[in-house]
TrEMBL record:
Residues 53-397 form the Enolpyruvate transferase domain. Phosphoenolpyruvate binds at residues 22, 69, 98, 146, 321, 364, 388. Belongs to the EPSP synthase family. The gene is aroA. This is 3-phosphoshikimate 1-carboxyvinyltransferase.
Amino acid sequence: MTLSLQHSSKNLIADLQITGSKSESNRLLILQALYPNIQIENLSNSDDTVVLKKALDQSSGVIDIHHAGTAMRFLTAYFASKEGCEVEITGSKRMKERPIRLLVDALQRMGADIQYKNEIGYPPLLIKGKKLHVDSVKLQANVSSQYVSALMLIGASLPKGLEIILEGQITSTPYILMTLEILQHAGIKGDFKDDRIFIHPVKNIAASTIAVESDWSSASYFYSIAAISETAEIKLSNYRKSSRQGDSCLAKIYKHFGVQTEFQGNSIILKKQKATTSIRVCEDLRDAPDIAQTIAVTCLARRLECKLEGLHTLKIKETDRLQALKNEMEKFGAEVKTTKDSLHLLPCKNLKANVQIETYNDHRMAMAFAPLAQKVPVTIIDAEVVSKSYPDFWEDLKKLQFLVQ
Ligand SMILES: O=C(O)C1=C[C@@H](OP(=O)(O)O)[C@@H](O)[C@H](O)C1
Ligand SMILES: C=C(OP(=O)(O)O)C(=O)O
């Protein structure tokens, strides 16, 4: 599906419901499979959550998790520790290029029976579930925090719990903290200090209902829309001031672009006020990699110079996001330099109109470039990719007077 986007209204007002965070939802679904008396509210309607939920109904055969990184990593640990199951976990062409060796090595050292169907280090995986008895494992933590979260999620179900000793510079730390907080909320004890995580064993937990906060990464596109607009008042629900999601740092980052965040009840209201006269945006996004594309495109639209660092994980996400950003921003006439972990955008004087954006099977490429339609008409190729995290995205854009056709 190809969509053309235009926008001419200067005054943006809308009241939108964003569904639950896919990161929180996918953690809670794994926990619920281990401890069935957990109830979940405001579950994400994203494809990544739908595929994970469906996979948990299976204990044999082939499971296809498409593009969902968290589903791939969390289910690998879950099925490896589930006695009696025998599954093949596979995914999209890109998923077969996303590394998983560090997690598989750690699980194998814990006694798991996991084999690679094709290439060593990459899905598909053939898993025979077994009781895992080893209670301490080392894990390199500088490639993806999802490997760490995957082990944490099964830790309490192991007979002696699990100690995870993290090696290397820890990346995407807020996602590890999110896992810990969700475990604690469910009644599982865990500690994370320096390079050590310990998850205490527990057989049964008390019944509880846990509400998922809405997705802050999805909110990022409305921060960008507000930042590019002249005036805006966009209300989004359900959000909390003390969020578990690292991407809630958006509220602070977008102040530089003149966007204020007001918490009102369980909603946030994004208000565009006069931007500060910052001429260069510098951010280290080691803790919030998923908002890199959003911020880069906001800067492109605002003709600002932008230096983003801490982007070493972007090359192994849904696509090589550094290369994809460079390719697509250059189509507008921008000058973009990238290294293996940074992106430098120079101020773009004149934005070319009617650019066709390739999305590389990456939902965030489609959503990050959409706000640019406030400046010039743009076309998004394969626009349906948004369903990986935000199936209602295009409908919600229409509510903000975007012409989407
Ligand atoms: O644990 C999670 O829910 C996630 C962790 C991050 O991945 P990395 O730890 O691989 O950076 C993030 O990019 C991804 O969208 C979701
Ligand atoms: C990187 C992402 O997801 P995952 O790694 O779970 O596929 C994302 O949603 O931006």
